[in-house]
Design a protein that fits this description.
The structure is a single chain. With 345 residues, the protein is an alpha/beta fold. It folds into 2 domains: 237 residues, Aspartate Aminotransferase, domain 2; 92 residues, Aspartate Aminotransferase, domain 1 (Alpha-Beta Complex), CATH 3.90.1150.10. 41% of the residues lie in helices and 17% in strands. It contains 14 helices and 13 strands. A 7-stranded mixed beta sheet has the order 2-8-7-6-5-3-4, with helices on both faces. Helix 1 crosses helix 11 and helix 3 packs across helix 10. Bound molecules: pyridoxal-5'-phosphate. The site of pyridoxal-5'-phosphate (PLP) has 12 residues, from helix 3.
C-alpha cells in the first residue's frame, strides 16, 4: 500500500494469494446459481458460523438490510443499540426501504443493551404499537472500541427473543476478530442468533463483499430481497475467490492485528497529551483522544501525521481519533506511528 493507512480495516487491499485466486477462479452466472466459486464461498461461510445457508452480498450494510428485512416487515419493529451500526451508519435503510421501525436502546461501555430494558422494550399486543419482531445485536461492537462481547450475552438475548416469538440478527461485521480475541470458535457466538452478517472486506482483507448466513428459509427470502435492491451479481466468483482465501487463511492471523493494536495502545498511553483506555483495546480498533491541553489542534495533529510519515488516522471529530490495524499494518508501522506522535506532541 502506498500510505500507512490506519483509518479503517476496510482500506486493506487483497493479498497476493487473493489476486492469484481471483485470476483463475471458475465462474458462472450467480443469478442462475451457476457460479461455482460463489457457491463454494457461501458453503464455507455458512459452515464457519454453523448455519444452514449463506448468501454473498455486496457489503455489510446490504447484509444487515437483507438480514433485518428477512425477519421483519413493514409495520414491525427491531430492538437494537442506539449506537449500533444499523441504527447509526446505514442511512436508516431498514426504516427507509423496509418500513421497519427502530427501537433504539442505550448500550453500556462494551456495547451491551441492558437485558431488563430489552425485555420491557418488547411491545404489548396493542393496535397502538408496531409489532416487536426482531432484536439486532453487534459483535465486535464498532463504536465501543470493537469490544468482543462474549457468547453468554447473546444466550440471554436469545432467551428473551424466544419468549416473545422474536428473531435475532447479528451484525458481525468483525465477528472473527471477536472470536479470535476471545479464543473461541465463532459458532459459540453465532449459535445464539438466527442470522448473521460478516464482512470479508475488513480485517479479512478481501477487496469487496460480505456474507449473510442463516436458515435456508431466511436465506431464500434474503436472495429475493438482494434482487430487489439490485445486489444480485453475475460472474461474482471473481470477487468471491478472494473471500474463499480470506476464510481459509486470514482468520487465525487476526491475532497479529490485535497484538499490533495493543502495542499501539500501550505506546500511546505513555505519551503526555494522549488520553486512552488501554483496557478496552482487545481487537483491532484503537480509539484515543488528544488531551484538552495538547500542544496541537486535532486538524494539525492529523495533518502532521500525514506530512511527517504518510500516516492516516480516522476521526478527528473533536478530539477523538481512531486507528485500526489490519493485514497491511506491520509492527514497524506501529513503531513509526508512536515515534511520530511523540515528535508532534
Ligand atoms: C463496516 C461495518 C458494517 C458495514 O459494512 P460495509 O461493508 O461498510 O457496508 C456494518 N457493521 C459494522 C459494525 C461495521 O463495522
Amino acid at each position: 500500500m502506498d500510505k500507512i493507512d490506519f483509518r479503517s480495516d476496510t482500506v486493506s487491499w487483497p493479498t497476493p494469494r487473493m489476486k492469484e485466486a481471483m485470476a483463475i477462479a471458475p465462474i458462472g452466472d450467480d443469478v442462475y446459481g451457476e457460479d461455482p466459486t460463489v457457491n463454494e464461498l457461501e458453503r464455507l461461510a455458512a459452515a464457519k458460523v454453523g448455519k444452514e445457508a449463506a448468501v454473498f452480498v455486496t457489503s455489510g450494510t446490504q447484509g444487515n438490510l437483507l438480514g433485518v428485512l428477512s425477519h421483519a416487515q413493514r409495520g414491525d419493529e427491531v430492538i437494537l443499540g442506539r449506537d449500533s451500526h444499523i441504527a447509526l451508519a446505514e442511512a436508516g435503510g431498514v426504516s427507509v426501504l423496509g418500513g421497519v421501525a427502530m427501537r433504539q436502546l442505550a448500550t453500556d461501555k462494551y456495547g451491551k443493551m441492558d437485558l431488563a430494558e430489552v425485555e420491557t422494550a418488547v411491545r404489548a399486543n396493542d393496535p397502538h404499537y408496531p409489532i416487536s419482531r426482531l432484536i439486532a445485536v453487534e459483535n465486535s461492537y464498532g463504536t465501543k472500541y470493537g469490544y468482543p462481547i462474549s457468547p453468554d450475552y447473546y444466550a440471554n438475548i436469545r432467551t428473551i427473543a424466544q419468549h416473545h416469538n422474536m428473531s435475532v440478527h447479528m451484525d458481525g461485521a468483525r465477528l472473527f476478530n471477536s472470536a479470535v480475541a476471545q479464543n473461541i470458535d465463532a459458532r459459540e457466538i453465532t449459535q445464539h442468533v438466527d442470522s448473521v452478517t460478516f464482512c470479508l472486506s475488513k480485517g479479512l482483507s478481501a477487496p469487496i463483499g460480505s456474507v449473510l448466513c442463516g436458515s435456508a428459509e431466511v436465506i431464500q427470502r434474503a436472495r429475493r430481497l438482494r434482487k430487489l435492491v439490485g445486489g444480485s451479481m453475475r460472474q461474482a466468483g471473481v470477487v468471491a475467490a478472494a473471500g474463499v482465501v480470506a476464510l481459509h487463511e486470514m482468520i487465525e492471523r487476526l491475532a497479529d492485528d490485535h497484538d499490533n493494536a495493543h502495542a499501539l495502545a500501550e505506546g500511546l498511553a505513555t505519551i503526555p497529551g494522549i488520553d486512552i483506555d488501554v483496557d478496552m483495546v482487545r481487537t483491532n480498533i484503537v480509539f484515543f483522544d488528544l488531551a484538552a491541553d495538547a500542544k496541537v489542534s486535532s486538524e494539525e495533529f492529523a495533518a502532521q501525521l500525514r506530512e511527517k510519515a504518510n500516516i492516516w488516522v480516522g476521526g478527528g471529530y473533536g478530539k477523538r481519533f481512531r486507528a485500526v490495524t489490519h493485514y497491511w499494518i506491520t509492527r514497524a508501522d506501529v513503531d513509526l506511528f508512536l515515534h511520530t506522535v511523540r515528535q508532534i506532541l
